[in-house]
Amino acid sequence: MTNSGSHRPEPSTTANERDMLDGWLDYHRSTLAWKCEGLGDEQLRRNALAPSELSLLGLVRHMAEVERYWFREIMLGEELPDLYSTPDNVDGDFRFTSKDTWSDSERVWRTEIELARQSVQGRSLDLVSRPESHRRGEVFSLRWVYTHMIEEYARHNGHADLLREHIDGATGE
């Protein structure tokens, strides 16, 4: 991991609302990828802050689930199975086996990001979800989902900072 993170797309400081939201979301997506860069499967699986079950691999798997849930299930009303969780393993994104690899998890995460982008392309930020899409019947605007996703990534990127520093001492902004 380089200290600069210079390969991350810097969000515009003067863009319109949609481009600003896309820019910040892409920035945070890239930040999580950066925090995982250069580590092997064992390091990415490591729960470096015991007793927490958080790991970098788990965060990537979790964010794949979150991308899928908010953009496709909530906003489009698609009925999709969970990627990793099961009734017997509700935290399946954070609980995995040696068969679960970084390569597979990263591919799924990047696929979910692309599907999320495609699902909202050209749609108004004023688009609202259907009440039946959410378990409590709440309605969300696409603007709210974008804001929530930026918050979700930012929070978990803070976790990723701490995990990475405990794994190999690497730090960055």
Short synopsis of the structure:
The protein has helices spanning about 15-35, 40-45, 55-75, 100-120, 140-170.
Describe the secondary structure blueprint for this structure.
Layout: H1 17-36, H2 41-45, H3 56-74, H4 102-120, H5 142-168
Helix pairs in contact: 1-3, 1-5, 3-4, 3-5
Key words describing this protein structure:
173 residues; Four Helix Bundle (Hemerythrin (Met), subunit A); single chain; mainly alpha
Number of domains: 1
Please tally the helical runs, counting DSSP H or I stretches of 4 or more residues: 5
The main β sheet shows up as: none
Indicate the CATH topology: Four Helix Bundle (Hemerythrin (Met), subunit A)
Strand portion, in percent?
A: under 5%
Q: How would you name the CATH homologous superfamily?
A: dinb family like domain
String of helices and strands:
HHHHH
Distance between the termini: 11 Å
Instruction: Identify the CATH architecture.
Output: Up-down Bundle
Which class do the helix and strand fractions yield? mainly alpha
Structural write-up:
The protein is mainly alpha-helical. The chain has a single domain (27-168), classed as Up-down Bundle (Four Helix Bundle (Hemerythrin (Met), subunit A)), CATH 1.20.120.450. Helices cover 52% and strands 0% of the residues. The chain contains five helices and no strands. Helix 1 packs antiparallel against helix 3 (56-74) and helix 3 packs parallel to helix 4 (102-120). The longest helix has 27 residues, at 142-168. The mean pLDDT is 93.
